[in-house]
Each structure stands twice: as structure tokens, then as C-alpha cells.
Design brief:
single chain; alpha/beta; D-Maltodextrin-Binding Protein, domain 2; 2 domains; ten-stranded mixed sheet; PBP_domain; ABC-Tungstate_binding; signal; Solute-binding protein
């Protein structure tokens, strides 16, 4: 019995030695964010700068915006960086997030095969173009993952009052990069953010069909999870990340990021506020 108790005590000590100390835990920041920030390469570019500056470590959960905000709502992360303004505002209004901060913006574009079967290339009206896709029975690949991109696409179809029917309409249930790869394979159109498209353009052969519509503006915001709801969250670390990404240094870093030589994210925080 004594040997068993000694063994149990050793196992407890071993487990305790593998847990992060309170100081170490405070340096770990859990962030949920979208496929677009990862697929474009932005996270791999930005986060090492922040980590070097602060000594903190950011553990990232990459998923669709809907899921990213759900993780915040349930206190499973400390901070969320997403691009679905109504859902972000709702998270804050319901008390799960402390405040939404503008970070940056990019834009959505409609892309498709070079032969342009729907005849929409060169257009600047996304709704008119999507009506032509329906009328021409052209194929369209949807993210289908409750991401910010998916929500915007569904809002366009809702405004039209229709959408392509199967088999022309293909729900990928995947991230933006995978959806673009599928669109190339199916010679289909897709709605995408410009940053991810720039990263995947060469490997897919897809071309920009429609761009420049104000409806396709795509703002990103960052929100710390409310410690009043979830006392265990790393609110200090979340605030530290928010302060950096919205600072002069963070905003300059966003502006300097390039994909294939092209600026694809534009800083929008009120620097110097």
C-alpha cells in the first residue's frame, strides 16, 4: 500500500512538472481566427514579430469565422480575429467579448476559369454577375463552412432570391485555399478574399472576374474574450496582442505584407487614438 502511495505521489509530481507554471501560462495567448489570415501567409508573417517583441506565444486555432466566434463565446480562446462584422458586434453586445477593434480590411472578388462561361469578366457589380452565373447554369464552388466568406456569399444569394442548383452549386465545406483548388478542378466560379487568391493564383489558374464593388469590402476586427464571463481566460495577453496589432508598429507591419508583390491587407485601426 505504501509503495502504491509513493508511486502515485511520483506520478503526481511528474504530471505537475509537465504543466506550465502560472507565469508560463500567462505568456500563452489562445487566438481563434479565419482560414484567410493563415492561407494568405499573414499570420506566419505577423505573429513572430509580436512574439519576439513580447516573449508571449500565440497558439492559433484556424477555422471559419462562425466557429472562431463560437470558440470565443464559450471561453475556449482568449481572443478572436475575424471578418464578420454583424456576428462580431453580436458577440460584444451579448457580453462575451469586451470590445471590437478595427484591425485591417481587404476585399472580396469573384474568380473563375479563364474561358469565363458566364460572361462576367470585367464586371464591377457582384449581384449582376451572380445572376448571370445562375442564368448560365455555370458551376460555382461555395466555402459552405459558415466562414465570413460563406456568410457574405449567402447574403448575396439571399439578395438575389435564388442561387445555382446542384450539380452546378458545389459546397466544399472547406477553407478558402481548398475551395479555390476545387473551383479550378471543376472550372467553376468562387467568391474569395483577394489575399488568399493572390497566394493560390499561380497554382489554380483562376482569373479575377469581378472586383471593385463596394459590397465586397471586407473589414477585420479583433475581440478579447470577457474575463467577467470566463475568469480563466488570459485577458492580459489578449489585450497585449490587441494593443500591438492596432499600434503603429503592428499597422505598419500589416501594410508592408505582400503576396506576389501585391499589398492585400490594408490597416484600419485608429492609430494614435
Amino acid at each position: 500500500m505504501r509503495r502504491r502511495n509513493v508511486l502515485r505521489a511520483c506520478l503526481i509530481l511528474l504530471a505537475a512538472s509537465q504543466l506550465p507554471s502560472p507565469a508560463q501560462a500567462e505568456q500563452i495567448i489562445r487566438m481563434s481566427t479565419t482560414y484567410t489570415t493563415a492561407d494568405s501567409g499573414l499570420l506566419a508573417y505577423l505573429l513572430p514579430m509580436f512574439e519576439k517583441r513580447t516573449g508571449a506565444e500565440v497558439k492559433v486555432v484556424i477555422t471559419g469565422t462562425g466557429k472562431a466566434l463560437e470558440l470565443a463565446k464559450h471561453g475556449e480562446v482568449d481572443v478572436s480575429l475575424t471578418h464578420a462584422r454583424p456576428a462580431e458586434d453580436k458577440l460584444v453586445a451579448e457580453g462575451y467579448g469586451v470590445k471590437r477593434h478595427d484591425v485591417m480590411y481587404n476585399d472580396f472578388i469573384l474568380v473563375g476559369p479563364a474561358n469565363d462561361p458566364a460572361g462576367i469578366k470585367g464586371g464591377k457589380d457582384v449581384i449582376a454577375a451572380m445572376k448571370k452565373i445562375i442564368a448560365g447554369k455555370a458551376r460555382f464552388v461555395s466555402r459552405g463552412d459558415n466562414s465570413g466568406t460563406d456568410l457574405i456569399e449567402k447574403a448575396y444569394w439571399k439578395q438575389i432570391g435564388d442561387r445555382p442548383q446542384a450539380p452546378a452549386y458545389i459546397s466544399a465545406g472547406a477553407g478558402m485555399g481548398e475551395a479555390l483548388t476545387m473551383a479550378a478542378d471543376k472550372e467553376a466560379y468562387a467568391l474569395t478574399d483577394r489575399a488568399t487568391f493572390a497566394a493560390y493564383k499561380a497554382k489554380t489558374g483562376l482569373v479575377v472576374a469581378v472586383e471593385g464593388d463596394p459590397k465586397m469590402f471586407n473589414p477585420y476586427g479583433i475581440i478579447a474574450v470577457n474575463p467577467a464571463k470566463y475568469p480563466g481566460v488570459n485577458y492580459k495577453g489578449a489585450t497585449q496582442l490587441i494593443d500591438w496589432i492596432t499600434s503603429d508598429e503592428g499597422q505598419r507591419a500589416i501594410a508592408a505584407f505582400r503576396v506576389a508583390g501585391q499589398q492585400v491587407f490594408f490597416p484600419s485601426a485608429k492609430v494614435g487614438r
